[in-house]
Design goal:
This protein has 310 residues and is an all-alpha fold. It is 76% helix and 0% strand. Helix 3 crosses helix 10, helix 6 packs parallel to helix 13 and helix 7 packs antiparallel against helix 13. The longest helix is centred in the last third of the chain and has 28 residues.
Length: 310
């Protein structure tokens, strides 16, 4: 007789599937920019995802958010629909996918910081120390790779901006998902952002009509259908099944996977500097996330609900 899968095991498997889906985002973005403009990729993927989201919301007859929820959805949309995709896409036009993956590895810790500020939690000093060390490690890695220690290049500033945008959007999305539902939150955010993203996509098409090869269109399709939409289904399903603290920490392996895919798909060399930088950033992020999840007084807010990468 086949032994049934426990709820906890199912949560971990769903969470791992979501992280696996998101781990291809950086290398596929790097492929797509070979034949498509950054603006078209960043905005166009959201337009396609919004169409899928609108269909899902309509078919399942989801209730409309209220006025205050629409305002908070605008924060989510600004962070994960507009900010993160556009900033990372522009950065990856001139920097390697493995480099971008290391800098973005600080996202789990940044999300924890955003959640702490949003919910007015009072984590221990160790949390802030770990978060600061993670930021320093990511900045040091980026500066060393520019060839001038202490000086960050434009791509790195874009990547750090993307991390901040996503962290704010994820933290607010985590709170909203308690009210609207997990996949419903990203779906409504996509629908809300659709008019702006459609206008940006049209402008990008007029300015530089796409002339991409099949591989670049395939990468774009993945970014639109999976990275921007379907990946959230698996990730949020995993968080819902739980245990949330354990499931959410699977996200810490995402940069390692992204670097691996960059080496396989793009032929990027896996140097010891990249490996060391990734290990340092992931270790600091893990410490920050674990420290923040220590037991606290009930009702302190977003204790164990970080969200996945856009």
């Amino acid at each position: 007789m086949t032994r049934p899968i426990s709820r906890a095991s199912a949560g971990l498997w769903w969470g791992a599937l979501g992280v696996l889906a998101f781990s291809f985002t950086v290398p596929f973005t790097r492929i797509a920019v070979g034949g498509l403009s950054p603006l078209f990729i960043g905005a166009g993927r959201a337009v396609i995802a919004a169409a899928l989201a609108g269909a899902a919301l309509a078919l399942t007859r989801q209730r409309f958010p209220d006025r205050s929820q629409w305002l908070r959805l605008a924060v989510v949309a600004g962070g994960v629909v507009l900010g993160f995709p556009l900033l990372t896409t522009y950065a990856l036009t001139v920097t390697a996918a493995s480099h971008g993956a290391v800098v973005i590895a600080i996202l789990p810790a940044a999300t924890a910081v955003a959640a702490v500020l949003r919910t007015r939690e009072r984590p221990p000093t160790a949390f802030w120390t770990a978060a600061l060390l993670g930021a320093v490690a990511a900045a040091a890695f980026a500066a060393v790779h520019t060839g001038a220690v202490g000086d960050l290049g434009r791509p790195d500033l874009l990547l750090f901006g993307a991390v901040v945008a996503a962290a704010v959007g994820y933290a607010e999305g985590g709170l909203l998902s308690r009210e609207l539902g997990s996949w419903q939150t990203i779906s409504w955010a996509l629908v809300l952002a659709a008019p702006v993203m459609t206008a940006l996509t049209a402008a990008a098409w007029i300015e530089a009509p796409p002339e991409a090869a099949a591989a670049e269109w395939a990468a774009f399709a993945y970014l639109a259908a999976v990275s921007m939409f379907l990946g959230f289904f698996a990730w949020y399903r995993g968080l819902a099944l739980g245990p949330m603290a354990q499931v959410s920490q699977i996200q810490l392996v995402q940069p390692i996977l992204s670097i691996t895919w960059a080496a396989i798909l793009l032929g990027e060399p896996l140097t010891w500097q990249t490996a060391a930088g990734a290990a340092a950033v992931v270790a600091c992020a893990a410490l920050a996330v674990r420290t923040r999840r220590r037991p606290r007084t009930p009702g302190t807010g977003l204790a164990t609900r970080p969200l996945g990468n856009a």
